[in-house]
Amino acid sequence: MPAPFTSGAGTVIAWDTGTWEMLDPEDSPAQARRGGHISFRLEGEKLRGGYTLQRTGGDDKPRWLRRRSSARPKRRARAAP
User: Fold this and answer.
1) 21-39, pLDDT tens digit by residue?
2) Phi-psi label, residue 77: left if phi above 0, alpha if psi -120 to 50, beta otherwise
C-alpha cells in the first residue's frame, strides 16, 4: 500500500528540459487550475506541442486527464551537413 500523500508509482525523474507557456495569455496557471482546465505549450528536447489538463474528478479527490492538441508542433530546423 502506498504511503500517505504519494501515488505509489515510485520516484519521479525530470527527464526533459525546455520551456512552457500558457496558451491563453490572459489565464494564470493558478486561475486555470482552479477552473479545472489548463492549456499550455511545451517546447522541450523531448516533448513539444500543445497540451490540455482537464479535471475529471470531484473536489475531494480530483483526477486530471491529459490530452495532446491536434495541432502539430513546430519543427526545428536541421543543420546542413
Assistant:
1) 998 888 899 999 999 999 9
2) beta
Give the torsion sign (CA, 3, 7, 12, 18): negative
- Locate 78 and state its grid cell: 536541421
Cα 26 to Cα 22, 23, 29, 30, 52, distances in angstroms: 9, 9, 10, 12, 16
Is residue 22 exposed (0-12), middle (13-18) or buried (19+ Cβ within 10 Å)?
middle
- Residue ranges per structural domain of the chain: 18-68
Residue 11 binned pLDDT confidence (cut-offs 50, 70, 90)? confident
| Burial zone of 38 (CB within 10 Å; 0-12 exposed, 13-18 middle, 19+ buried) | buried
Question: What is the sign of the dihedral through the CA atoms of 8, 13, 15 and 20?
Answer: positive
